[in-house]
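FORM 7B: Structural annotation worksheet

SECTION A. Query
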Amino acid sequence: MNILLQRIIERLVRIGNLTVTGANGASRRFGDGSGQHVHIVLRTRKAELAIGLDPMLALPEAFMDGDLDVIEGDILGFLHIAYQNMGPSGVEAAWTRAVEGLRHAFRRMQQLNTTGRSRRNVQRHYDLSGEMYKLFLDTDMQYSCAYFERPDMTLEEAQLAKKRHLAAKLCMKPGLSVLDIGCGWGGLGLYMARNFEADVLGVTLSTEQHAVATERAHAEGLQNHVHFELRDYRHLTERFDRIVSVGMFEHVGVNHYRTFFEKCATLLKPDGVMVLHSIGRSGPPCATNAFIRKYIFPGGYIPALSEILPIIEKSGLMVSDVEILRLHYAETLKNWRERFMANRERAKEIYDERFCRMWEFYLAGSEASFRWQDMMVFQIQLTRRNDIVPLTRDYIGKCEKALAMRDGPAAPQPEKAGKRPKRRISEAGE
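SECTION B. Predicted structure
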């Protein structure tokens, strides 16, 4: 094993039970022997050197390329060992802080999300095969954090509970106009139209999502109430009673926060309510993970509340409620990862082995970040006046209970998808 990498692992892994076999075939054991045993194999000296120099990017790339394999345990178990040993006094500070500091310094250049660049970034991720997403999402195609009212909820039940939770915070009532910024495959907009006869405009930059959402609206006979359009929110001029955005703010970029909130303030009617649902971090501002930025969400950024609340204060909007969802996304990702792994062979037929390994690391790494690092989800309720929503939060639970009685049981878990022609995903930058 590369001597630099060996010394780093020796200093880092004090807790846990890790065996590493290097490219020369020699194995070393690290940690105090506690917990699940994880055994990884590094197959090339090039991978050893790269991981030693820049682990945040080189380690997932080695896994994608097959230069790193987990032969006992799994990648989530490996990440658990790594994260429980990281800390301000550990080797992580001396080893990676300089590299990550440079990434933080240049983050604004990486998040210049103009209209054209935003569309390209969205297409890189959301215009993948719709069948691939059906392999691991719930039946309503909700690609955002679910809301687990009970630990024993299925993914379908928790995603339905998420829609109820958002509707309650929006103070929904019949006949309102609703803007859904980043509408995905249309599930939330259809829910609002179905339950409240709302007139919904959903905007997205994904051609695949737009096509599916529009088809769903017609299939349900809701095309007169729900319209999905390929539009950038910055180009909207209408005004709405309600605005909701779920899982889109992560793609805005720190350079454009002021534009986002000022635009929302002009689009929201004086007596309107907005709810913003986004991944955030409980720690201070940081750079986007290098692997996520290069391969999964180019142009994306996970904000700290300290970065966005001062901008909201100057935008003409008022914060009327903030809720932090801590482990809800970890449980959501656990469900997605298990479903993806159960359908991995089909995903390989649609794309290829390298894509599957990339997606496996993405799902496991994201779950690990919510379980053992500082990732969380926040829901911010916004108004333009301080007398719009009720004085106490009791109305949220009451509305959710009423909607739950109307919703009935969630749809069952979907069957495995059928076969279609194989497709390949391009590499970052291509």
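SECTION C. Observations
Confidence is low (pLDDT under 50) at residues 417-430. The radius of gyration is 22 Å.

SECTION D. Sign-off
Analyst initials: ____
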